[in-house]
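Treating backbone geometry as a discrete language has practical consequences that deserve illustration. Part of our work consisted of pairing the sequence of a single chain with a tokenised description of its backbone. We regard such an encoding as a compact summary of how the chain folds. The amino acid sequence and the backbone structure tokens for this protein are reproduced below.
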Amino acid sequence: MIKAYAAYEAKGKLRSFEYDPGPLGNNEVEIDITHCGICHSDLSMIDNEWGITQYPLVAGHEVVGTISSAGENVSHLKIGDFVGLGWHSCYCMTCGTCLAGDHNLCSSAQPTIVAHHGGFANKVRAGAASVVKLPDSIDKETAGPLFCGGITVFNPLIQFDIKPTDKVGVIGIGGLGHIALQFLNAWGCEVTAFTSSERKKTEALELGAHRALNSRDPSEIKTASEQLDLIISTVYVKLDWNAYIMTLRPKGRLHFVGATLDPIDVGVFPLIRGQHSISGSTVGSPENIAIMLDFAVRHNIKPVIEKYSFDNINEAIERLRNGHVHYRIVLSS
């Protein structure tokens, strides 16, 4: 039996829950969990903000732990390996996107916390292809958030062939944005942070930004006019996207990784005139996760975390719900 903490209703407290995962599949592994991050997507699922939650829900998709069991077809992982598991717990492995290495775009991919029990537990099951071995020297305490927040902001650097000479903006210096600043600075880019918090302006500079501008002040945004090759938006709120389009250089891109629920209101003429692009993405393939982990170790990039024990999971979730987290939460056993 797997022992977990489950939500039984929207916005309800998590309570103890046990379930039998059944026989281990030939292509599956079981992970003994040592750490698990709490992401805003976990909160969205707990509160059924997306209308797809099935209760009882065991959330948690930033898992770090050791392999305790492996199916007979699993050859790249062995018992005792320290590994991580992110948003996806299984892929079909036969569709065109999987065969091309874009597993995260698989239309049949199984999310770790949608109709599947996740990492707010002592163990979790997953398809072995979705589980990534950790580099030996990585800080295991802070590694969990890299499997969702980290890969979400790292993946665009690979997908869009971002160069060290590029100038990149990051909107929102929170759970995603503070990791993006570190990656982009280490990548070699000139980095502009956009934030509405004066306190975070200072922190953004410490985390790798070369300048920090007020994300809601049109005059400050205008100082970056026609300068940026890429903007990564990590926020969940509606902003004046046309103002940000005007900060792009010709062929520049406004890229969304934050799941704002409001429609994107953008004028077509600025897009046409600058041959600009608007795009979005989420997480990344297991291969790109592995590349990201190696890059993070090489450049000593770590999410800024607050630590809680699993016993205090409800306190941690309320802190996230109230917007008080600085910048990610990690649960430990």
The longest helix spans residues 286-298. Residues 35 and 332 are 4 Å apart (CA to CA).
